[in-house]
Amino acid sequence: MFLKNCWYALAWSHEVQGAGLLARKVIGQPLVAYRTEGGEAAVLIDRCSHRFAPLSLGRREGDTLRCMYHGLVFDTQGACVLEPGRKRPSPNMAIRSYPVVERYKLIWVWMGEPSLADPDLVPDCHWQDDPAWRSIPAYIHYKADYRLIMDNLLDFSHLSFVHENTLGGSLAIAETAPLIEQIDKTVRITRWYRNEPDLAPYLKGVAEIQGPIDRWNIYEWHMPGNVLNMDSGSAPAGTGAPEGHRVPEALQFHATQIVTPEDGKNSHFFWSYGHNFNLDDAVLTDRLAGRILEGFEEDKVMIEAQQLVIDQAPDDARMGYILVDAGLARGRRLLERLLAEEQQGLAVPAEH
Ligand code: FES
Ligand SMILES: [Fe+2]
């Protein structure tokens, strides 16, 4: 089950350019995204109302999209505006269009009731536009249920094991209990590891701090849209980072990670990992993104393998809960509650 009345990240802005068409599924529905001549993003169902040809094999013509099977033309609202050989198109050929907002270098789509699509509900990712941070927008496809990725991100104890030689590097991560808070539809997790002997492996050769460090991951998981924003970093130990004092030598990062369900067994993962120091150093941005990607590929291997095991498990097999699951349990409960509320309270239009 998926939340429908929320904004999902469909694509990075740069993935839809000029007259290009992007086919991407969200919560099981095939979508096609394109831009009008003026550059406005539009999203339609990727299924022609005639013989169900994918419109993503079509052609952008002005502000409209032509199905390249038998030539029907649709506007940004899904109305069929032209049928070859007829003065006026046949009735009832309209297709579904979806509310779209382009913000924070991302194209967001609303899969639920269109009248509820309030642009103010787009999750805050302003760091993408902030010149104080530099990052590279990136995408990974997962063959896994979005909730397994959510579980992973709500429990960083795995950094000590999955990412032993990359993002983690210290057993302290698994041994330290995080502070877990829930603020409305957001789970906030605060992790401090004080007086660690060394930087995480992924930072070696990227940046230097001599001597022991205080290290942190402070992040919020916004459930509608599955958006994580994280303040993380390392500072020379004892310089007051936990109290909010970040000395110039501190290495500070801002990560954005967004999980959009493709369907029940596949997910889109949009991410960026910004730094706010050495802003004119493109090599640093590049190298940092490469190191983070190494870590994320470790997650992908583990989570996709986990999905396969889940698929083969007998119906009565149940997962166990251990101490580190407090964050993911909180997330799962919140998701279940929001799903139930949506089911009970709000009408969601039938797919057509
Ligand atoms: S399938 Fe699109 S026009 Fe026939
Ligand atoms: Fe991970």
Description:
The structure is a single chain. This protein is an alpha+beta fold and 352 residues long. It folds into 2 domains: 7-120, Rieske [2Fe-2S] iron-sulphur domain (Rieske Iron-sulfur Protein, 3-layer Sandwich); 123-341, Naphthalene 1,2-dioxygenase Alpha Subunit, Chain A, domain 1. 18% of the residues lie in helices and 31% in strands. It is built from 4 helices and 18 strands. The chain has helices at 146-153, 172-175, 282-312, 326-345; strands spanning 7-12, 22-26, 29-35, 41-45, 59-61, 64-66, 73-74, 80-82, 97-98, 100-103, 106-110, 138-142, 179-183, 186-196, 213-222, 227-236, 251-263, 266-275. The protein has a 7-stranded antiparallel β-sheet with strand order 12-18-17-16-15-14-13, with helices on one face. It has a 4-stranded antiparallel β-sheet with strand order 2-3-4-9, with no helix packed on it. Strand 7 (73-74) and strand 8 form a beta hairpin. Helix 1 crosses helix 4 (326-345). The longest helix has 31 residues, at 282-312. The chain is globular and about 75 Å long. The model is unreliable at 347-352 (pLDDT under 50). The protein binds FE2/S2 (inorganic) cluster (FES) and fe (ii) ion (FE2). Fe (ii) ion (FE2) binds at residues 152, 158, 162-163, 299.
Number of strands: 18
On the 0-100 scale, what is the average pLDDT? 95
Distance N terminus to C terminus? 19 Å
Largest sheet: 7 strands, antiparallel
Number of domains: 2
Output the keywords.
Rieske Iron-sulfur Protein; 4-stranded antiparallel beta sheet; binds FE2/S2 (inorganic) cluster; alpha+beta; 18 strands; 352 residues; 7-stranded antiparallel beta sheet; binds fe (ii) ion; disordered C terminus; 4 helices
